[in-house]
Request: fold
Amino acid sequence: MTTMTETSARFREFKMPDVGEGLTEAEILKWFVQPGDTVTDGQVVCEVETAKAAVELPIPFDGVVHELRFPEGTTVDVGQVIIAIDVAPGSGDAPAPAAAAPVQEPVEAAGSGDGDAPKGRTPVLVGYGVAESSTKRRPRKGASAAPEAAAVAAAVQAELNGHAAPAAPAPAVPAQAGAQDGGRPLAKPPVRKLAKDLGIDLATVVPTGKDGIITREDVHAAAAPAVAPGTAPVPPAPAPVTAEAPAAAVPASARETRIPVKGVRKAIAQAMVGSAFTAPHVTEFVTVDVTRTMKLVAELKEDKDMAGVRVNPLLIIAKALLVAIRRNPEVNAAWDEANQEIVQKHYVNLGIAAATPRGLIVPNIKDAHDRTLPQLAAALGELVTTARDGKTSPAAMAGGTVTITNVGVFGVDTGTPILNPGESAILAVGAIKLQPWVHKGKVKPRQVTTLALSFDHRLVDGELGSKVLADVAAILEQPKRLITWA
Reply:
């Protein structure tokens, strides 16, 4: 699908692009540019949220922003134009931009770009074909409300999406040497990204780069708090905890709060219903003494070969599951309903369920079966950090084969997890607790946990599922099997 169209030699349009998730729409969370701003090829112009993740969109050409087609908070179909760019500013009078419409119907047969789909078919993302039915969206509530009401709605929606509410306009700042004619400071996209992450307004940064360009060092210098001689620096205030519920004040008399089902929450609901009512689930449980595994974790934390990576019980559990899959490769498969085939996977993309401000997501470690223990530890650490920061890419969540969900971090003993769509099995790990246990003929306090393995009974029978779960338990009880069974 093409993401830009050329309306004339002067104006070019940028469409909501294919971000690789197989979805048909995305919500515009935030615009980083406004009409009149100068943009350069590769500069991030907005942040959008699909049903899986928030993604920043770069513009693919240079020019001046002529028009933003949709306001923040609008859900836009893939393939619709979201921004128009004047690529030859100053060459003549530009037509007045059209008013930003809160809703735009899906493009049908008489569309305006080479990415349009035939009538009655909705454009979707690459690799997933096309949906047969066209999407009609309900008009946004309060579209004709006063600007003040719209601002309040935008603030509430921003909180729902896991973002801070828009700040009040900052007082005017004298133009810096690095500002362009339109007042936008000169900085490369990575520097703009750094400033955004640090909460720095580039208009307040004094540039030191060539031709007045703001550098990374300038941003870091602006982020460093000024400290008077002889005084201690004041530590920054702790960041507010982001919640899924709106941060707007709720009247004490309110008996209920309604939260729109959208984004990640909507995707979770659809995926879980589809999984639960498509794949026949079977769940098996085993309680195991993991005292030796906990000792191994403690030893690995002191091992110089594991320096710089996070070592925890999940690392050993992940490695144990990978060994169990290697010993029982038939479990690593998928059911192809259309072709009535079982697709055997000769690789393991290990999914790790992660709770984030936007909801539960399941990024996966690609080719986890080929990674050494230090490599697996590094990949786990990066995966968790990226997910918590809300930076997980759509590609990181695609193509999983088997998943681990660690409910033990919440003090829960175990559960009956639902399969991630398209996968054959999911392992739930319960809390590791000190319990009385018969060890070498005597009752002793031991570290014990309960594992639960759910699997698709169409392609995994009871014997195979039991072997996989038993192998994981055996490795956690005697982790030396990671070597003897390798």
